[in-house]
Amino acid sequence: MEFITALANGFIDLFKTGAGIFSSWVTGIIPLIIILMTAVSSIIKLIGEERVHSIAQLATKNIITRYTVLPILAVLFLGNPMSYTFGRFVEQKYKPAFFDANVSFLHPVTGLFPHANGGELFVYMGIAAGITTLGLPLGDLAIRYFLVGVIVIFLRGVITEKIYLYMRSKAE
């Protein structure tokens, strides 16, 4: 009988935990995302969508800035998941590669800018705990993560762009 009671309690506790997480989202991340979206939209409206679009288009003309500068700025200023909205300024044919570069930078940035992707912080902190145990500095780790991340997003952006354009040309 105790087993059934423990099983029933465990079952309901699972849903209580889920409800607690959902409640924290409703009072935490959801309002934050709405405010960020509103702020970014307001800034774009104040500056002028045409100007912002032109500047972003200028940054996307160069393959290096398209897959380094633009995703870095998106992740640093907007964080995850808002950084994906910068894709609206990228030409359609570059969107898959921009998305790949953007999403690939959400972990390496965590050591220097934890606000950018709080969900990845637990991974970095686990690695940082091991580095600290070895008596090594965390700053070096964070900078290396960031620099390797920039290289990786550039490579992923270029490779994804080439694959997408090749596949698109075969479909036409």
From TrEMBL:
Matches recorded under InterPro entries: PTS_IID_sorb
Signal peptide start-end: none
Keyword terms of this UniProt record: Membrane, Transmembrane, Transmembrane helix
GO BP field: phosphoenolpyruvate-dependent sugar phosphotransferase system
Transmembrane segments: 25-47, 67-86, 145-167
GO annotation, cellular component aspect: membrane
Pfam families per record: EII-GUT (PF03608)
Stored PANTHER family: PTS SYSTEM GLUCITOL/SORBITOL-SPECIFIC EIIC COMPONENT, PTS SYSTEM GLUCITOL_SORBITOL-SPECIFIC EIIC COMPONENT
Protein's UniProt name: PTS sorbitol transporter subunit IIC
Organism this protein belongs to: Conservatibacter flavescens
